[in-house]
Amino acid sequence: MSESPERDARHKARMQRKKAVVDDKIALATDEYGLLLVHSGNGKGKSSSAFGMVARALGHGMKVGVVQFIKGAATTGEEAFFRRFPEEVSFHVMGEGFTWETQDRQRDIAKAREAWAVARRLLDDDEIGLVVLDELNIALKYGYLELDEVLADIEARPVLQHVVVTGRGALPGMIGAADTVTEMNLVKHAFKAGVKAQKGIEF
Amino acid sequence: MSESPERDARHKARMQRKKAVVDDKIALATDEYGLLLVHSGNGKGKSSSAFGMVARALGHGMKVGVVQFIKGAATTGEEAFFRRFPEEVSFHVMGEGFTWETQDRQRDIAKAREAWAVARRLLDDDEIGLVVLDELNIALKYGYLELDEVLADIEARPVLQHVVVTGRGALPGMIGAADTVTEMNLVKHAFKAGVKAQKGIEF
User: Fold this and answer.
1) Would you state the pLDDT for residue B29?
2) Per-10-residue mean pLDDT for chain B, 203 residues long?
3) Residue A50 within any structural domain of the chain
4) How many domains does chain A have?
5) Which residues form the Cob(I)alamin adenosyltransferase N-terminal domain (chains A, B) (predicted)?
6) Which of B33, B45, B162 comes nearest A49 by C-beta?
């Protein structure tokens, strides 16, 4: 992810596209456009809330795209459920997730970039009304993706498309770009000793 | 909701039932039982997160019950979606909700008690793995239902059934009874002037 003329050219093209989209937005008046929502914090509900919004969007007849940047991030139930609707939900769980164990940073970066390429396709598709980028904040926090590039792609999305970004440790730049930021804070977590993670709740 | 011998007898029966359930729980060892989760706070995502858990539970083949204590509480999309699965989701939107305008307290209490009767049926049904009591905290905060009675019914539910209670202003007793409490806090809500509530996001 070093600097390069190609990257500069890509950036310029994106910025031009962004400007065109902003102009479109202005032309559309200001009363309807896609929002960027960020769910952060150390509590539960960041991803669950995004998946509740998926259900809500489907209830309104929208199509939805989901990219999970960390495989196995406690959401196997949602994946099983929403895969029932392949016409309506484009569901992507990327690679094996990040290698917390192996600490192979180059491999992590490569995986994150693959995931982002999928996300970018969804962000380019104006038939999709809602895009969930689950645990994207983690990939950004670890520097596996560049925030400027990610934000430019998000900003250049179709005017009416909503995006939800989840994950603890949202970067200030992501918070700055968002329309709405919610922090889920753990107030109490009193699992009795010996109680394991519960199906339907934790995963 | 005044004191009465009938109510005392009902309470005693519930407490006996609760004791039996607690004994059952102990007998089941401590490694699997239904959790009581509370989503409170002034931010977004309290109800959405509960509905994400509905999707998760359905993905695991569970049956789910939902009671919405405030009709039209910004969740028409979820209702439309989850009503597609009548065999798996028992979805109840109660009455016309509370009468913020008319201030008719007796009517509100009657409506809340009707809603609670439906909730109690779900809490009695051991085929249901997850019960969502959406905006219940509001009914409790306004004193339309008695906390002790509500908690006794929740506590007496089937051992493996999970319950999610949503709504701002959770009472201390509800927080005390919960296994997990998450507070959704609004960090930023920068809807540009003139932007109306967005379908798929706000409702």
Assistant:
1) 45
2) 64 65 55 86 89 94 94 72 95 70 75 94 97 94 94 95 95 95 84 53 63
3) yes
4) 1
5) 1-26
6) B45
Q: Is residue A137 part of a domain?
A: yes
Q: What is the DSSP string of chain A?
A: ----HHHHHHHHHHHHHHHHHHHHHHHT-SS----EEEEESSSS-HHHHHHHHHHHHHHTT-EEEEEESSTTSS-HHHHHHHTT-TTTEEEEE-TT---TTT--HHHHHHHHHHHHHHHHHHHT-TTEEEEEEETHHHHHHTTSS-HHHHHHHHHTS-TT-EEEEE-SS--HHHHHH-SEEEEEEEEEE-PPTTPPPPTTTT-
* Minimum distance, in Å, between the CA of residue A166 and any CA atom of chain B: 12
In a domain, B133, yes or no: yes
Position A14 in a domain: no
Question: If pLDDT is split at 50, 70 and 90, which confidence band does A1 have?
Answer: very low
Contacts of A47 (CB under 8 A, 6+ apart): A39, A73, A74, A75, A78, A134, A135, A166, B52
Q: Quick one: angle between helices B147-155 and B105-123, nearest 10?
A: 10
Asked if B195 lies within 8 A of A32 by C-beta distance, the reply is: yes
Question: Which among A116, A72, A74 has a CA at the least distance from the CA of A98?
Answer: A72
Contacts A81 to B, Cβ<8 Å: 55-56, 58-59
Residue A165 distance to chain B (closest CA, Å): 13
Residue B201 carries which side chain, given as an amino acid letter?
I
Give the percent of chain A with pLDDT over 70: 72
Span A56-76, pLDDT tens digits? 999 999 999 999 998 665 457
Q: Do B175 and A188 touch (CB under 8 A)?
A: yes
CATH number, residue B137: 3.40.50.300
Q: Which domain holds residue A53?
A: 38-183
Measured between alpha carbons, how far is B50 from B27 in angstroms, rounded to an integer? 29
**Mean pLDDT over residues A40-50, rounded?**
90
ipTM above 0.85?
A: no
The pLDDT tens digits of the residues spanning A95-104 come to 565 555 556 7
